Amino acid sequence: MSEWKARRFWTMAQAVERDEGHTVELDGRPVRTPAKAELTLPSRALAEALAEEWAAQGEAIDPNSMPLTRFANSAIDKVAPQHGAVAEMLAEYGGTDLICYRAAAPAELAGRQAAGWDPLLRWAEDELAAPLVPGEGVMHIAQPAESTRRLHDHVAAFDTFGLAGLHDLVTLSGSLVIGLAATRDLQPAEDLWNLSRIDEIWQREQWGADEEAVAAELLKKQAFLDAKRFHDLSRPDA
Known about the structure:
The structure is a single chain. With 238 residues, this protein is mainly alpha-helical. The chain folds into two domains: 13-81, ATP12-like; 82-233, ATP12-like fold (Orthogonal Bundle), CATH 1.10.3580. It has helices at residues 44-55, 67-79, 83-91, 107-127, 145-156, 160-173, 176-183, 189-196, 198-207, 211-233; strands spanning 13-18, 21-26, 29-30, 101-102, 135-136. Helix 2 packs across helix 10 (211-233), helix 3 (83-91) runs antiparallel to helix 5 (145-156) and helix 7 runs antiparallel to helix 8. The longest helix is centred in the C-terminal third of the chain and has 23 residues, at 211-233. The chain is globular, with a radius of gyration of 20 Å.
């Protein structure tokens, strides 16, 4: 049995400004989220980007080709009703941040981790006022309570759309510091993604690449880049 797919029913998709913000209309009818909420967007740039996704659809709608629309739906339907809980969940990554867990050996891997992650720790201390403690191995490292509190405050300060983007930046990279660094343009998003994959890159160099694993990795990388783009476009001044 062939899988049923939603079909295109509109001719024109366009961004429209409203008193409360921006939205996307399909042949003059406003788009709604899966939960039937109004698709109210914080910036004209984001609305135009979503309209482009809708306009680019063929006869059959492909949700995988609409990452920004999915982020917007998630922001409205999922993040907005539980902003505090989402912020709390993401802030917890600060207590177990990827960049704090280092290899004792081999020396080359440990050196790569130090070269890539130590500058991020210095940035967290200098810019976020949240010094974190690195260590060797996988055993839990207790982080300063004041640092984790400040990281929580940084996360809680994001608005609904920013938090939706930050969610994937953090969960895909495994690092709250890398996620926050991406939102503040500390380095290009692709460079930050590569910093989150130091261990994986090392393993591939030693043992070779598995085709399925590489394909899955590329999907994660694209999702990370999409999250960064969504975050940037959702800024009111974008």
